[in-house]
From TrEMBL:
Domain DUF547: residue ranges: 65-169
Keywords: Signal
KW Signal (keyword) present: yes
Highest taxon above the source species: Bacteria
Pfam families: DUF547
Residues spanning the signal sequence: 1-20
InterPro entries assigned: DUF547
UniProt protein name: DUF547 domain-containing protein
């Protein structure tokens, strides 16, 4: 009996550790199967026990002992998983009422608490002061950043966030810089979260300058030289059901 006790304690500890954070390999597998160039085949995740398992892991996670990088990676993954869960539950951000239900009314279990997607983004993720999260969390819409085909992980988070940010910023369907006219058409993400980019770099244009691949556009942005307008946001689904 004495020898059995340490074994039982070990099993309990292993179980506790297993529920402490998201199984990124499992989420990776789901993403790799259903996401191609940002297009999400949501049907693959409907009635899928593997998807249900990662939703449950989000609910049971213990963020108390996580580092900032671990929490940031976990929250990004959690947001993307639960945004997909909302779509599978019949919600949609397409339309004013749809956005209210999808972002604010419906709640999900995250790390032992029930919160909405709005709360997860504004009360848990944004306070971590990382503006690149706006290119990583995906609200299942065409004008959102694309859902990446891999899970975010703490050890690769810097690389992943930088890649997501540069990919979004240099995508002409989302941001356009006309050097002749001096006008830039930007994603409304830069309007809605202007304060996050200003806090980071002083202005939206200063934030964009080192990220834009076109050297002339980058130089003009560094001088706040563009007249800014914002593109209409397409809330239609970023995939198929």
């Amino acid at each position: 009996m004495i020898r059995i006790i340490p074994l039982l304690l070990g099993l309990l500890l292993a179980s506790s550790l297993a529920s402490a954070e998201l199984d990124s390999a499992a989420w990776n597998k789901l993403l790799g199967s259903a996401v191609v160039a940002g297009h999400v085949d949501y049907a693959q995740w409907r009635d899928n026990p593997d998807f249900d398992a990662v939703v449950e892991q989000v609910a049971r996670a213990d963020t108390g002992a996580m580092s900032r990088q671990q929490r940031l990676a976990f929250y990004i993954n959690a947001y993307n998983i639960l945004a997909a869960r909302g779509i599978l539950d019949g919600r949609s951000p397409d339309g004013i009422l749809g956005r209210y239900l999808y972002f604010k009314r419906d709640t999900y279990a995250v790390a032992g608490e029930r919160i909405s997607l709005h709360q997860l983004e504004h009360e848990w993720i944004r306070p971590l002061k990382e503006p690149r999260i706006h290119f990583a969390i995906v609200c299942a819409s065409q004008s959102c950043p694309i859902l990446q085909s891999e899970a975010y992980t703490a050890d690769r988070l810097e690389e992943q966030l930088e890649s997501a940010a540069r990919g979004f910023i240099n995508d002409r369907s989302r941001n356009r810089f006309d050097l002749r006219s001096g006008r830039a058409e930007l994603s409304r993400i830069f309007q809605w979260f202007e304060e996050d980019f200003e806090e980071s770099s002083g202005s939206v244009q200063a934030y964009l300058a080192p990220m834009v691949s076109n050297a002339e556009a980058s130089s003009q942005l560094s001088r706040n030289g563009f007249e800014i307008s914002y593109l209409e946001y397409d809330w239609s689904l970023n995939g198929s059901l």
